[in-house]
Amino acid sequence: MCGIVGYVGPQSALDVVVAGLRRLEYRGYDSAGVAVLADGGMAAAKKSGKLVNLEKELVDRPLPSGSTGIGHTRWATHGGPTDANAHPHLDNAGRVAVVHNGIIENFAELRAELAGRGHGLESETDTEVVAHLLAEEFSGCADLAESMRLVCRRLEGAFTLVAVHADEPDVVVGARRNSPLVVGVGDGEAFLASDVAAFIEHTRAAVELGQDQVVELRRDGVTVTGFDGRPAEVRSYHVDWDVSAAEKGGYDYFMLKEIAEQPKAVADTLLGRIDASGSLSLDEVRIPARVLKEVDKVVVVACGTAFHAGMIAKYAIEHWTRIPCEVELASEFRYRDPILDARTLVVAISQSGETMDTLMALRHARDQGARVLAICNTNGSTIPRESDAVLYTHAGPEVAVASTKAFLTQLVACYLVALYLAQVRGTKWADEIRAVVRDLARIPGEVERVLETMEPVRELARSLAAKDTVLFLGRHVGYPVALEGALKLKELAYMHAEGFAAGELKHGPIALIEEDLPVVVVVPSPRGRSVLYDKIVSNIQEIRARGARTIVIAEEGDEAVVPYADHLIRVPVTPTLLQPLVATVPLQVFACELATARGNEVDQPRNLAKSVTVE
Ligand code: F6R
């Protein structure tokens, strides 16, 4: 949440910062602002609303050009999305500017203290106190990095801070605690951002910042220290995402592009997983086999769409490994005193690798002695860094707020983890594992075929634009798919959308069915467990008898459902457990088209942000 950019170097800081903010706008879009150091002073501009409002302001009232600057795109926490609450925040003398992501929990106390010393604070934010504290510290030590260290030691909560001071015109200082911040090192220039997408057009050389560290950026390099001032080890890495991956590439929305990228994302995530001996090898899983053999419980923790991937993982893990698997919303996990020990394997799934709920859940798990394996899409992010092992999904940057390609690759990663556990523990033979991997290898082609047949789904979505409610039903792995379809519709189309386990219908939700209510039903393969299939076909008949308009997602060749489907969406034949990889795709397209038909902003739905770095 909130996107932050900082720059020092030979280019126009304003241009670099605004371009970076454009790439980070998915993180929050309530307001945006910039500050540049020029002519010995500070110049700042900020505007409520989307970045475009700030860009207009910069045309109407241009800022002087400078080579050091910072910027921010906001997802409001403290204080509404007004001009006054937009970042950067300045001290009373206008010499220091600061941008912030996170929540400073003791801000009220600090604010009262500052007011007592005569500071006038103008916004309702928690951030503004930092500008004032930095100004006070700087007046003592004349060193912005040292001022930042001193201030950070007084702050409670989670924060990324980036600041500039007019008296140090070639320096940008950043700090992080429990909130993302990465450094980009170019030739005679340096960058700070919440996410590498902000600077990959300039450099691929990145530096990870650890917990409670302060970084000082100068043109000729970066210096990292702990909040205590001790030099920190600098860990560099190469960013292999290409620039075009962070752009729309001719699509109207990132979401459309990301839906279309799914075949490649799935294929890339599968790449190189079978070694020369024919065994499944997951390079990034560095938990010894002897530890995995001892695991007696798997607990998956995740949020939102990633949680739905976890629900599907449970079916695969239990079926292939016979290890009991629980799936828990990360935000609930540590509050219920879960039973964990050294034989528990916790799987934390997160696209961004920064979701605070998931991070806190994994920390709790590690504190109790459990091993944590992260499934993550973002190299260098906090969740994989704090886990014992990581399996990276190779979806490339996901910019649209609604997760699509990350979900499919999370599923692939979950299947791989399940198969790997089965291999290590001997619950599946090598040839059985290779057979599933071969089935997975066919998925990119099958997703491609689904994407080629989506026009009727789009047409259907447009025809439902005036509806208030859509329900989604599924059984077995189709149940999380139904939940995911409903989540996509809620967040994008702002409609009442609910997913149910089809068997639960008769226990209450069937009362919602009324004439012409659209109900999407995810039908499992008739070639799988016939009892499952028969039951869901009965469920379709029950709702149809009560007037529902049935939208049935069924496998090619399944003719038995035809009489009960007002609309039929075909998906390719897949093994039962892998069906979510194809069945989810029409639901993504459906939600995207319905949202467009309702005039909604597909990539930036209201009230949301891509990376949820507050609890
Ligand atoms: C929905 C969506 C969210 C995320 C959730 C977890 O489309 O994108 O529900 O799945 O916020 O985010 P990550 O995976 O980054 O931890």
Detailed description of the structure:
This protein has 615 residues and is α/β, with parallel strands linked by helices. The protein folds into 3 domains: 3-246, Aminohydrolase, N-terminal nucleophile (Ntn) domain (Glutamine Phosphoribosylpyrophosphate, subunit 1, domain 1, 4-Layer Sandwich); 254-451, 3-Layer(aba) Sandwich (Rossmann fold), CATH 3.40.50; 455-597, 3-Layer(aba) Sandwich (Rossmann fold). Strands 3-2-4-1-10-9-11-14 form an 8-stranded antiparallel sheet, covered by helices on one side. A 6-stranded antiparallel sheet has the order 5-6-7-8-12-13. α7 packs antiparallel against α14 (430-452) and α14 (430-452) runs parallel beside α18 (580-597). The longest helix is centred in the C-terminal third of the chain and has 23 residues, at 430-452. The radius of gyration is 25 Å and the shape is globular. The model has no long low-confidence stretch (mean pLDDT 94). The structure holds fructose -6-phosphate (F6R).
Short recap of the structure:
This protein has 18 helices and 24 strands.
Keywords:
about 625 residues; alpha/beta; Glutamine Phosphoribosylpyrophosphate, subunit 1, domain 1; Rossmann fold; 3 domains; 18 helices; 24 strands; binds fructose -6-phosphate; EC 2.6.1.16
